[in-house]
Design a protein that fits this description.
Blueprint (H helix, E strand, L loop, with lengths): L21 H10 L1 H11 L6 H14 L26 H19 L16 E5 L4 H10 L4 H12 L4 H10 L5 H15 L3 H5 L9 E5 L2 H27 L13 H13 L34 H13 L10 E2 L13 E8 L2 E7 L3 E8 L7 E6 L10 E7 L2 E6 L3 E8 L8 E2 L22 E7 L8 E5 L7 E6 L12 E2 L3 H10 L11 E13 L6 E11 L4 E8 L8 E2 L19 E7 L5 E7 L5 E5 L4 E4 L2 E5 L7 E6 L3 E4 L3 H8 L1
Parallel strand pairs: 3-7, 14-16
Antiparallel strand pairs: 1-2, 4-5, 5-6, 6-7, 8-9, 10-11, 10-12, 12-13, 13-14, 14-15, 16-17, 17-18, 18-19, 20-21, 21-24, 22-23, 22-25, 25-26
Helix pairs in contact: 2-3, 2-4, 6-7, 6-8
């Protein structure tokens, strides 16, 4: 008894089917033509490109008739590959072996020679199989990483249903030097794919007989036509010169490694507009994953293959694009080309440009080219990994002097524009087109006379019926604004919440002028945390200690600590301290904070104030001011000046240093 991974030895002499007559071969080929073309298409390398791969598969099958006998042959000279699954006989076995051998020879040749067959020929059109589902795309990507011999073995075992012995005999007869090894690799691949392997191979992704047609790049074709006469003249002159000159044979191009072949195949698939992923229109309303992956493709040009192809090519070429496109990359965003087919979010005209929005799971890409006149296309890349209901609710599609237009998520039911500096003024309704594109939202001026934000409400169809604020910081995705109110006596710790309540809007009115300073820094969300409240001396009212944390898409956060007086119209006083690119302060992993500042009372008396977060039980000041108090607030009258060293007591966590203390110590060491 043989083990699962052991295959019988192969004898080529027993694998050669009888050579049929031409009439019998043609009849069998016509009857089984889709089956044979699918087999050749599966073996050919994906790096060939979808159009050339389809034509090459058809050509290889059609050329297999050339080897048939001109007249009906006699009886078969010896044993043949056993008939499988109701095959009509040895004629199909002969055709199949010829197709496998021809496809393997084509796959082993230089890349430039693949698919160079006289017929069939298609001019002015690109042909490609229909796009399959996620499972078919995953299988296609996996097949691109293995050798043609393994693909042939996989096809014979799964698609053709041959036994291991029959497949080994056929592979050996087709010229495979190690059929047993190819079959073992194919079995491992088959076990990885599972029981759906056969149904997936019969899907649209692997059917080169049911194809779609699109035009080639019409503008590029015109340019090529104009160059045809010049190229022909140059070739004629070169051929005459070559007759008179002895030239050595150029070296054969190097054979690409499997990894290079797989990379080329993945790149070719990523640049194919027909493979772009498109979510069904209403999928977002019936899924547990409400994010950018559920956006349907919207816009008037989602079917414009030429536009989509230019967008994908610009993305793939990146900074090396010779056409003049200079990508704009948000901080922390990888610039690598796409490794797999991306998701199409939008394609259509906006403000005089043709705009394409793509999403590859980790990044959003915006491509825009002018509809008329001069000017270069533009390309923008920004991170969008783990975008959710709020951070994936809008994407900028256009920026003009009138403002920015946004494409809203399909789960946004209401949208408005609000001035954060005027919390008592109702938000102004923002008109949205049928495709989900908003009217222009004016940009916040540099003088902080207005700080505009989007106020949107999600649909009740996703059971997330709530409103939230989004601030445009000059990038593709606006930043989500949240608010953490001050702790109350005996109340549990409060998590960040939406800032659309009256109290939340009033709080952000104090911090809104800090937002323009975050433009272009890759910010995903900004939270205003009121970590302490303090009653001021001389009955001057209550002050608030705040920590504003701007968090990037990669999880890094920059923090600003401030003290706000009782006058709601006064500007916050920034507390000097560190400005690191990454800190845990004011996050769920940095919930303890202590800060201090000098303050002059309305009477003219000078005080030193300090406030600590809810877990602080005592505060000690040393230096120009020396005092110790129990609780979360300290107020000491003083006529001195200078840096005060603060420490706080946090039960179970040891000593808490004041904001900026660690920086001053490291700077003085």
């Amino acid at each position: 008894m043989q083990s699962h991974d052991t295959f019988p030895s192969t004898d080529i002499s027993h694998a050669v089917p009888p050579r049929p007559g031409r009439n019998d071969a043609e009849a069998a080929l016509v009857e089984h033509y889709p089956r044979l073309v699918r087999l050749a298409h599966l073996i050919l390398p994906p790096a060939l490109g979808r159009h050339r791969r389809v034509l090459a598969a058809h050509a290889l099958v059609q050329k297999s008739l050339a080897a048939a006998a001109p007249s009906r042959p006699g009886p078969a000279p010896g044993p043949t590959v056993p008939v499988q699954r109701g095959e009509p006989g040895p004629v199909l076995a002969w055709l199949r072996q010829g197709v496998v051998a021809a496809a393997l020879r084509a796959a082993a040749g230089p890349r430039w020679s693949l698919g160079r067959t006289p017929l069939p020929t298609v001019l002015g059109l690109r042909l490609f199989p229909g796009a399959g589902g996620d499972d078919e795309l995953a299988l296609e990507s996996t097949l691109a990483t293995v050798t043609p011999e393994v693909r042939a073995a996989f096809a014979l075992r799964v698609l053709e249903g041959l036994t291991a012995q029959s497949a080994a005999l056929l592979l050996a007869a087709a010229g495979v030097s190690a059929p047993d090894e190819a079959l073992r690799d194919a079995e491992r691949l088959r076990s990885t794919v599972g029981t759906d392997a056969e149904s997936l191979l019969h899907g649209a992704e692997f059917d080169p007989c049911t194809v779609q047609a699109r035009p080639t790049d019409l503008l590029r074709r015109r340019h090529r036509a104009r160059l045809t006469a010049l190229v022909a003249a140059i070739l004629l002159a070169a051929s005459v010169t070559a007759v008179l000159t002895l030239r050595s044979e150029p070296p054969a191009p190097p054979t690409p490694s499997p990894s290079d072949t797989a990379l080329a195949a993945a790149s070719a698939r990523a640049a194919d507009p027909e493979l772009l992923l498109r979510a069904p229109t209403d999928r977002w309303s019936d899924t547990a994953r409400v994010d950018l992956t559920q956006w349907p493709a919207r816009g008037a040009r989602t079917g414009d293959t030429a536009l989509l192809s230019r967008a994908l090519n610009a993305w793939a070429q990146g900074t090396g694009d010779p056409t003049g496109i200079r990508p704009s990359v948000a901080p922390g965003t990888p610039t690598t080309p796409p490794a797999a087919p991306a998701r199409l979010l939008f394609a259509g005209p906006v403000d005089g440009s043709a705009v394409v929005l793509l999403h590859d799971g980790d990044r959003i890409v915006r491509y825009a080219e002018p509809l008329t006149g001069g000017g270069h296309a533009v390309l923008e890349l920004a991170r969008a990994d783990d975008a959710d209901v709020t951070t994936g609710a809008a994407v900028a599609v256009s920026r003009t002097r009138l403002g920015a237009r946004f494409l809203l998520a399909p789960w946004i039911d209401e949208s408005a524009v609000r001035d954060l500096l005027r919390p008592d003024v109702p938000a102004r309704r923002l008109a949205v087109s049928e495709d989900g594109v908003t009217d222009p939202v004016p940009q916040t001026p540099d003088d902080c006379g207005h700080v505009l934000a989007l106020q949107v409400r999600s649909s009740t169809r996703i059971v997330e019926d709530h409103s939230f604020l989004l601030a445009d910081l000059g990038e593709l995705s606006p930043a989500h604004l949240t608010w953490t109110p001050a702790p109350g006596t005996g109340a549990p710790a409060r998590q960040p919440r939406e800032a659309t309540s009256a109290a939340g809007l009033a709080a952000w009115a104090r911090s809104a002028c800090e937002l323009p300073g975050l433009r272009g820094t890759g910010v995903r969300a900004v939270n205003r945390w009121e970590f302490a409240r303090q009653t001021l001396p001389e009955r001057a009212g209550r002050a608030t200690w705040t920590c504003t944390r701007a968090e990037s898409w990669d999880g890094r956060g920059r923090v600003a600590v401030a003290w706000e007086g009782p006058d709601a119209h006064s500007r916050p006083v920034r507390v000097p301290g560190p400005a690191p690119e990454d800190t845990a302060a004011c996050s769920r992993f940095g919930q303890h904070l202590l800060a201090g500042t000098y303050w002059t009372a309305p009477s003219g008396a000078r005080y030193y104030l300090a406030g600590g977060s809810r877990a602080v039980t005592a505060i000690t000041a040393r230096g120009p001011v020396s005092a110790t108090v129990r609780g979360q607030a300290l107020a000491v009258r003083t006529d001195t000046a200078g840096e005060v060293r603060l420490t706080g007591t946090v039960p179970g966590s040891g000593e808490l240093r004041g904001w900026g203390e660690a920086e001053r110590e490291s700077g003085g060491s």
